[in-house]
Amino acid sequence: MAAFRVTFRSGPRVERLAAGTLEEALELLETRARAAATGVGGNPLRTVDLQVRRFAPVQQVAARGELRGAGGDGVVRAGVDVRGDGSAEAWTGRLKRAVVEQRAGEDAYAALRRVLL
């Protein structure tokens, strides 16, 4: 049985993966998210105009990778959202997600690794 599960959603497609360690799970998450960001970057989402409110591509989630499992400090729940413009944003939590702030020189994946490892 795998210690960590990675679920990656991109449009209607859902991919469920298993990993034995947190590092392997983070690698799977990063690989899938970078591939999705490359695909979105070449074909960004359009702005959604609902007459009352507009949603720019950066405000839309094009793909989401979620990581969960039993880590050294208890249950790990985290992930990465790939935005409609191809950018990525890391988060932690389950019901109440907290964005992982990126430090200088970090991307979303490095920031998530820093928080989890």
Molecular structure report:
This protein is α+β, with helices and mostly antiparallel strands and 117 residues long. The protein has one domain. It is 26% helix and 39% strand. It contains two helices and eight strands, in the order ββαββββββα. The strands form two sheets. Strands 2-1-5-6-7-8 form a six-stranded antiparallel sheet, covered by helices on one side. The protein has a two-stranded antiparallel ribbon with strand order 3-4. Strand 5 and strand 6 form a beta hairpin. The longest helix has 21 residues, at 22-42.
SSE layout:
Elements: E1 4-10, E2 13-19, H1 22-42, E3 48-49, E4 54-55, E5 61-71, E6 74-83, E7 88-92, E8 98-99, H2 108-116
Antiparallel strand pairs: 1-2, 1-5, 3-4, 5-6, 6-7, 7-8
Short descriptors:
single chain; 117 residues; alpha+beta; 6-stranded antiparallel beta sheet; two-stranded antiparallel ribbon; 8 strands; 26% helix
Biggest beta sheet attributes: 6 strands, antiparallel
Radius of gyration: 15 Å
Instruction: Indicate the percent of residues in helices.
Output: 25-40%
Question: Could you say which overall geometry the principal axes of the C-alpha atoms support?
Answer: globular
Which stretches are low in confidence, meaning pLDDT under 50 for 5 or more residues running? none
Number of helices: 2
Question: How many structural domains does the protein architecture include?
Answer: 1
Q: Could you spell the SSE succession in H and E letters?
A: EEHEEEEEEH
The strand order across the widest sheet is 2-1-5-6-7-8
By helix and strand content, what is the structural category?
alpha+beta
Beta percentage is 35-45%
Rounded mean pLDDT is 90
Q: Quote the distance from N terminus to C terminus.
A: 21 Å
Topology, number of strands: 8
